[in-house]
Amino acid sequence: MSRKTRDVLSVEWVKLELIRTAYATRGGLFAKMDPRMVIGWYLLLAVAPWMTHNFTTILALFVLTAASAALARVGPLVLGLFLFGFITDFLYAFLAAWLFGGDANTAIALIEINLKLATVSLASIAAFVSLDPEKLSTGLLALGAPELLAFGVSYGYRMMPILFEEFGIVFTGLRLRSAPGPRGFLGLRALWRWGTYAVQAFYPIFLNTAKSVRTTVESLETRGFTANQGRELRIARLSIGGLDMAVVGVTVVAVVAAFGLGTRWPLG
Amino acid sequence: MTALIELDRLSFRYPGADRDTLRNVSLTIEEGDFVAVIGGNGSGKTTLCKTFNGLVPHYWAGDFAGEARVAGLDTYESSVAELSGIVGYVYQDFQNQLVRPRVRDEVEFGPMNFGMEDFQARGAEAMAMLGIDHLAERFVWQLSGGQAHLTALASVLSMRPRIIVVDEPVAEVDPAGAHALYERLTQLNRDHGITVVVIEHHAEFISQYAKSVILMDDGAPVWHLPVAEAAARADELATHGIPAPQIVDACAALDVPGAPRTVAEAATLLRDAGAVPRLASSLRTDDAAAPHAPGRPVVTASSLSHGYRTVAGDLMPVLHDVDLAIHAGDRVALVGGNGAGKSTLMRLLGGLQVPRGGSIVLDGVDTRSRSSARLADHAAYLFQRPEQMFLKDSVRADVRLHPAGRGRPDADALVDRVLDRVRLTDLADRDGRTLSGGQQRRATLAIGLAMSPALLLADEPTASLDVASRDSVIAMLDELSGTIAAAVVATHDMHLVAEWATRVIVLEHGRIVADLPPRDLFADDALLAQARLVPPQIVALGRELGLDPVPLSVAGWRDAVAPTRTEAHA
């Protein structure tokens, strides 16, 4: 066995991918848009698939969201996880149809629902990788969400890299100092050990962060967070521009076209 | 000058506590003052400062008696919101104070919450005053310690406060960063008339920057004096856990009265008193400087290079072509600014990671050939923040984790022995997190020792400690060096370098620029400037007076001046 520094599929890579996704550092088409319009755009594509049983329409909508995900520059980790879920779901659908004596129609019905789910998932991935925490929280505010929820969203993002870093260090400590053992068949013993460490890591992480959160809460108090007079100022920063109108316009046209396509050439 | 903060017979008790944290405090702070609040742990410094912005008694609702007026407002009658327009508070763990994703959002957060229309202008102004405008678009987790500290300061400055309170500014940033912060505070105080209150342990910062000093003891101020008078009371300060600056000790060692504020002042004082030690050729060179045959190699690195992926996806090189051999008996201090590659080098040496290029042989084992868990039998790595080492619910369990897991038959005896050595036997059943800063460091040392490593690696073992705890950790490292073959310490602390190390490795931009004994480092002005290092006062004083070799500690100074004293008294 020879160790080396890996750039992908390592813990460090997962951390970087999560940060890139959360903070929308890859840019992409929707990252330049007004958050309210991104959320609206997402709702449009999240609702449309449930309005039909027409397979052609569903396929067209799926292609549309897949193209959107490409334009949003979704990273490999999120995309990989999505594909994994998507493919295993399909396999499961076929297996279930075959085992329970279903025919092609059962399989198609299952594929249809999976495709709908996949469409909605892709749309949400495309929307949320494009919203950095500040935008998302301001967007939620503008749509009438309570101040606390909006702040919670942005603070959650803020804590994410810290928790990840802390977890990495504590996990490393456990790995270095706990009893080593054999890798076992297919590395299962090692995997089991790592699982145990991951659970054990929570005790120190909770205590270490609990201490720091006290400072955060006090500081929020002194900086007028509970005075809560900034809502209008924050929302006033948003503006809907040409790009927003164009993207939503094109999407509406595409969705209508998908329905049109379905009535013209129905597949099932 | 007008009084800005007036406390009149103020007492406060935290809910559930059985005694008052503040006892009958009467105190006045003038507008435009630069006040240092000092005192031992638990003397009520932080609680005192939290009465200024109304966190006591509005957020911490305990028993409050007496009166506190800040800029004419009675803090009991007004709210935290009103008071935070007047008083800005920067915490010791300032990283936790940053709550927004980007620096600009962070700085505008306060004014925006209070519905101020000009929040953008205020944010820009605060950032410009501290010279961090170029960081506006950065994410807060990308900042270095010093930058994060300035951001926290800017975020309270944007409220245009009349008073700024900074809790232990030196604790979590390197010396260069701490001096930069103090320079900024001085500028705010001088140019903008902002009253500054700092809680500070380090006498050298107090004497250099503060105008007046409040000594707290057991919940009440002992006195509030101009800094010169305060510095003259060195003995009184020492009994309250604030050791005098080294230069004051140095003068005292020669029976020269006075409390110099800077090294130059101390040198003049000593020269005028005729007490300058002669070019002390009689000085024995101590063993550290004596050449000795290197022991067996403990770890060898050859043409090491390493780098990290950034969020943007490119490879950021951290180490370039580093060759290094550490031998048995070496006590190595790794120095260099933030980002020079100290932590990375240590992680590679300990086998936590493997290098992208080159190779490392640790205790006869190529680090690539074994898992980091196996390599932990050869090298112990102590993380920078002690609580990151506390994985179990008691110090004893933490110390026991490694030896017991490896099935050492003598594990329990070893744990007892190690706990005894670091003098923590009495506290061994407590959770490490509940100990004081100095005790926590000693507990992490115990964890490292119980691993019986050939190589001990410690990241900033003296960071964020007060002077007394720092000295005790240095002394402990000194005592323990016998039990491990070699130790490497990454540090900003020049006292640790001067008093403990036998070898200093200066890293800059991922390259070793010097590898030399501490005394040679402190004699090399160009190198010191290049690596942005500030030698301890005693070393600077020794050089100023032309001592050769220069003393590295106050004890060394006493030895060096001893012959002079005997002659003077003869």
UniProtKB/TrEMBL annotation, chain A:
It is a multi-pass membrane protein. The keyword Iron does not apply. The keyword Aminoacyl-tRNA synthetase does not apply. The chain crosses the membrane at residues 41-71, 77-101, 113-131, 137-157, 238-261. It comes from the Bacteria. InterPro entries: ABC/ECF_trnsptr_transmembrane. Keywords: Membrane, Transmembrane, Transmembrane helix. It holds the Pfam family CbiQ. It is found in: Membrane. This is Energy-coupling factor transporter transmembrane component T. It comes from Demequina litoralis. The lineage of its organism: Bacteria, Bacillati, Actinomycetota, Actinomycetes, Micrococcales.
From TrEMBL, chain B:
Keywords: ATP-binding, Nucleotide-binding, Transport. InterPro entries: AAA+_ATPase, ABC_transporter-like_ATP-bd, ABC_transporter-like_CS, ABC_transpr_CbiO/EcfA_su, ECF_ABC_transporter_ATP-bd, P-loop_NTPase. GO terms for molecular function: ATP binding. Signal peptide: none annotated. PANTHER family: ENERGY-COUPLING FACTOR TRANSPORTER ATP-BINDING PROTEIN ECFA1, HEAVY METAL TRANSPORTER. PROSITE patterns: ABC_TRANSPORTER_1, ABC_TRANSPORTER_2. Coiled coil: none annotated. SUPFAM superfamilies: P-loop containing nucleoside triphosphate hydrolases. This is ATP-binding cassette domain-containing protein. Residues 5-243, 299-534 form the ABC transporter domain. It comes from the Bacteria. It holds the Pfam family ABC_tran. Belongs to the ABC transporter superfamily.
